[in-house]
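Write out this protein's structure.
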Amino acid sequence: MNRMQDCIIKAKLRANEIELPFQQDVSFIVNSRFTNAKGRCDYNLYNKNCVIQLSKLMLEHCDEEEIINTICHELIHTLPQCRNHGHIFQNWCQKFNQKFNMNMATRYKITDQSEAYQKAQKMSSRARQEKKFLVTCLNCGKTFRRARKLNPDNYRCSSCHGNLKIERI
């Protein structure tokens, strides 16, 4: 992941330029299971270390600036007072935005994301949500598909409140 390392270095340089006191020994991991999040900063209370997980989907389909933006966002989360998106976090975002003309925010709209990333995100969530089970109402015959198995004794038909039968497709 040479591209990822380049982006990490550039993001850390930007953070140092605005004097962000981020955790220097933070480690980075690529997470192939992230489809809705571009990154996440996990803080370990026991050893006081931070691990930043970056979406494999983002690294493959987003441009360099979007990756740097995400890494900077997660570096802010390494600060003890910035575990959430409160006012201190937002102040650091503004500093990044002003200094580097970035578009860092606490939440991202779908329209803010690159088209390639949106397409990859849809493909990934479709593959993940493969419907393996067919649920049938024994009373009215209504059927629907589910990705995960459910216990039919705990659920009823939404239309007629009849008993359900589940079978693997």
